[in-house]
Design brief:
Four copies of one chain form a homotetramer. Chain A is built from ten helices and ten strands. Chain A has 265 residues and is α/β, with parallel strands linked by helices. Chain A has one domain: TIM Barrel, CATH 3.20.20.70. In chain A, helix 1 packs parallel to helix 2. Chain A starts with a strand and ends with a helix.
Chain lengths: 265, 265, 265, 265
């Protein structure tokens, strides 16, 4: 049940963020408990008093090394293709990886991806050798474009980042899965509960990226384990083939008029 | 993370049905894979050609013995308190257990429990020494009555049996949990997907009883494992404390105007 | 498009409450604007400083007279069959009507009807000559019982009273409509928006009873008109036959490869 | 309660399509019954045996003249900016109007607008003097772009065209309304029931465009009236100020322990 991203084989289908944890130590424990091997990080990270800049980065590098996984720099907070491309290049240099979670924010209220700027930035970064994982809305045509441009991984949102609203538009998400059967689809942003992640996997998604749902839980380490199990449950459920919904009730115990010990006499 | 039902401690929070499987062998494997230690069975079971009546019962007894668990006879298909009480007494004699999943069906279309007959039957059976697990609707007052009568376990439905519609009315289910904090609450009927079971556990339910969702899956044995994991994920998530939903987006990476390596200079 | 309740023909399918308005004058205007001819009132009404007890009742009688309609006393706040029956008899004497909206509350949190006490009170009141309109939950078996006892009108809830949550469980409500085709079904409690009332009518319900949604609107008089139109829209929609939902998109303009002016050449 | 579109004041907030009706006569009656003054039409219309091409157009022109309204040519079925622009110019010439419902389809399954091609076509057509009403997805950034380009009217979808699924993503639709307070917002595509249209208006939308919901009803003429009323109900409801949803029940009749006639003694 491994996930392959740009040729890398990973043991977990969970991708996890590194922000908003109560402390670096809890972050480390939560990441390790999650089983995730892909950890996102932003260069534009807000400066925590006790752990500013490079220290946090070195700390994270150590954590990722323990997972035997990959650091996934992101361009969170960028509002134009140009800004994102610039930051991406800095990230590549500093973090020594061509993997990139590409975010270009288009609105300050819902913090949604800007579809136009996202396409522009994706084109430039792919041409420059990046392995782009674009964070996008649940717009099929946008996802198709990004895939056609050469992104092997597409990451539509479930709902606005940090809301914990879960899967706002299951119809759109199912349509994307159906129409892009070859793409690696990671559901990104808006996941609130383990059951949300489980549902995404039951739809046939290849993975889930989340941050707040773990970092803001009362117990982030335990919640990380909960998500790890929820993804496995959902994946198993998808492979095992979920029963069809039915409009009318069906007895699980079809009955005859007489109990069996009378029938057998 | 064990579940206690009428003083019995169980290793799994999943209760499972024994009907509708493709074959007895697959049923056995699915039950064992689920980790469940409580298996429901109806005396009024439809007569399968190759495994009629007592044979099936003996087979099931063996399976339950392997789980080190309990057989839970049910009164599926009964339409009156009187009929259910009669069948319950037969079941106790044959299966040598005073545990009983009490079903009294009130309508042929949605196969819902009849609240009035259910209360009548519950009173009589509790007085007669049964340990009653009543299958009921998601009506708080009905659940409260059953609890006040002495049922330690209450089993509201998620949706009509066999529909796989999942949790039709989360508001009602959450209200029951909040108002009956001491009762052992098992969600029963209508579960379709592992994420449904996960969601029930995230709400603080003590367990889930299902049958069709496993038996009618393309691969019942794998689906049984999926549900086992989904329940664990949901329970962990409940204990770990799910984040609050928020109406507006929040960046998981709060950003400053300048990347940290500039800030640090 | 008239509604018949216990032999009375009414011009409106809206039944309206008389509580929570900013002032008696606004209440009067709102009731008149709604077109409703059935106004509910409780004897156990909280005593407004400026309009205590009998004054409010006389005022309401005048309003109802202007609608050429009926006063519908209710037993809001009663918690047992006995209490409700006593209050019903007082109401009949004072208000000179055998119509009764029967409420027996079973829980202080969700203020839901108590199905057991409701049946007991219904039996006694029908036997005593009352024309009972029972407020009940969306439980099909309970609705069927009340209908079988002789209630010509059944009033299931949409959601808990005063929440404005709208139709919590459309499946249950649709099932009740389908299974009780002869009963007059009024959706009662929980309506928040005109679209909720419209949806109820599209399902084939015979009417809607509401109070908070009008009384707590910024402009109760205008909201009363909005609901009057919404009910008419929903009823027309039901009679006109709503299109089937479809899973896949269908062009409303099926196109050929060439525009028609080329086709016609 | 009039609607202004590109300076034209209209008496109805409903825009209606001219396809899929059982007959031209029923189409005419339905349009007149709807009260709509804006009727969409496609040059690429499928050729009905009895009413091919120009005949249908002349017939529609007559109907629109009777409404004292406007014909709104659309580019349904176009799959690229280029194709849409070409068709738009033909439409302007033939129908003698610079109004245009701009559709550029991006996927054959969900028939959704292509956000990229849509922007390209919008730019060209606005520059060429068209009054563009773009049909788009419920993507806030896309809507913002179209508005910034100079479209006074924006028409996001409710759900895929012809599905009748109603408002798939209320969160997105509410966000667009909140973030674009000055734009004229018309909900377009996916409307199935009058209550869907009512809900859109309650959200503060300025109008609704639909076709299948009326044309495919059992009785299109009656359904047209139903929608006309539903829009008015929703608009009134929006202006009147819908009550806040509440999580817990609130009695509409707050009660004291004693009835008022005792209190007054």
């Amino acid at each position: 049940m491994s996930l392959t991203i740009y040729g890398e084989q990973l043991n977990s289908r969970l991708l996890i963020g590194s922000a908003l944890y109560p402390s670096p130590e809890i972050m480390k424990q939560a990441i390790l408990a999650s089983g995730s091997q892909v950890v996102t990080l932003s260069l534009k990270r807000q400066n925590p008093a006790e752990n500013s800049g490079q220290k946090i980065w070195q700390y994270l590098q150590d954590v990722v090394a323990q997972t035997n996984g990959k650091l996934l720099p992101n361009t969170a907070g960028c509002k134009s293709a140009k800004e994102a491309v610039t930051l991406a290049k800095m990230s590549r240099e500093i973090f020594q990886t061509d993997w990139l979670k590409l975010e270009v924010i288009g609105d300050d209220y819902n913090l949604q991806p800007d579809p136009i700027e996202l396409i522009t930035a994706t084109e430039q970064l792919l041409a420059d050798g990046f392995k782009v994982l674009p964070y996008c809305t649940d717009d099929l045509v946008l996802c198709q474009r990004l895939y056609d441009l050469g992104c092997q991984v597409i990451m539509p949102w479930a709902s606005p980042i940090g809301t914990g609203k879960g899967l706002m538009n299951p119809y759109n998400l199912e349509t994307i899965r159906m129409r892009l059967p070859e793409a690696t689809l990671i559901l990104d942003a808006g996941i609130g509960k383990p059951s949300d992640a489980c549902l995404a996997m039951e739809m046939g998604y290849d993975g889930v990226l989340l941050n707040s749902a773990v970092a803001l839980a009362d117990n982030p380490v335990m919640m990380a384990k909960a998500f790890a199990q929820a993804l496995q449950a959902g994946e198993l459920g998808y492979v095992a083939g979920v029963m069809e919904q039915r409009q009318t009730a069906h007895p699980s115990t079809p009955t005859l008029d007489t109990p069996f010990w009378h029938q057998n006499s």
